[in-house]
Design brief:
Elements: H1 8-59, H2 69-72, H3 74-81, E1 90-92, E2 126-129, E3 135-145, E4 152-161, E5 175-181, E6 187-189, H4 196-202, H5 212-218
Antiparallel strand pairs: 1-2, 2-3, 3-4, 4-5, 5-6
């Protein structure tokens, strides 16, 4: 009986075809994995921050009555309202100790540098790492007059870098902005109450990307096809 086998040329052609298909599909597989990992870490951090602030408000007062970093100092504010309620964290006080190569390592989606300095002696922000490598920067207090009520309100920005010091360090890719504010006393994504149009305009490659966390939440904690990844 005659036995048939593949020739070397046929094997090489087959391997070449498999290689071409793999090179075409692998980037999409990697990108999809990174999207899912980013959302997973972002959702976990959102839960951790809200749980910590809720516990602090049970022991003290509502956030709107908290003593601010400007009033009692960054260290005392963090030691009192945040540190006891955040588990398994590593605290860092400078860009170098936080493993970043620059004190302002992040950029907006449009390539403009984010003017946010990592924690330092003269900066009213505290940097911490969660056990999974997510970096959190709890910002100083900000004040503004709410247009709807005319009342003075205050809030703290909270920046989240889902993969820490590793690149790309870009808003909306691995870097996101949250805030805790005196009007809700909860941690929420920046611009979460804005219109869908406003969120989509700001979460774009031509803008800052500040609303990208809000877009992910509005989309059911997913990075969908229209997301500017």
């Amino acid at each position: 009986m005659e036995k048939r086998a593949f020739t070397l040329a046929e094997v090489l052609i087959t391997l070449g075809i498999i290689g071409i298909i793999a090179s075409m599909t692998l980037p999409a597989v990697v990108a999809n994995y990174r999207k899912k990992e980013t959302v997973s870490r972002l959702q976990k951090t959102y839960s951790v921050l809200n749980q910590a602030s809720s516990l602090a408000q049970k022991d003290y007062e509502l956030y709107q009555y908290w003593e601010t970093p400007r009033e009692i100092g960054k260290d005392e504010h963090f030691e009192k309202y945040w540190k006891p309620y955040l588990k398994n964290i590593a605290i860092c006080t400078t860009a170098n100790l936080c493993k970043y190569s620059s004190s302002t390592p992040w950029v907006y989606r449009n390539g403009v540098g984010v003017e946010v300095y990592i924690a330092g002696e003269t900066v009213l922000r505290q940097g911490i790492y969660l056990a999974d490598g997510t970096f959190i920067l709890i910002g100083e207090d900000n004040h503004w007059i709410a247009p709807s009520t005319g009342n003075e309100e205050h809030f703290q920005y909270i920046w989240v870098d889902t993969n820490g010091y590793k690149p790309p360090n870009m808003m909306g890719k691995d870097f996101f902005r949250f805030r805790i504010s005196s009007d809700t006393n909860k941690v929420h994504a920046d611009m979460i109450d804005s219109s869908e149009k406003a969120i989509n305009e700001e979460c774009s490659k031509a803008a800052s990307g500040s609303s990208c966390a809000a877009k992910i939440i509005h989309d059911g904690w997913e990075i969908k096809d229209d997301y500017p990844w």
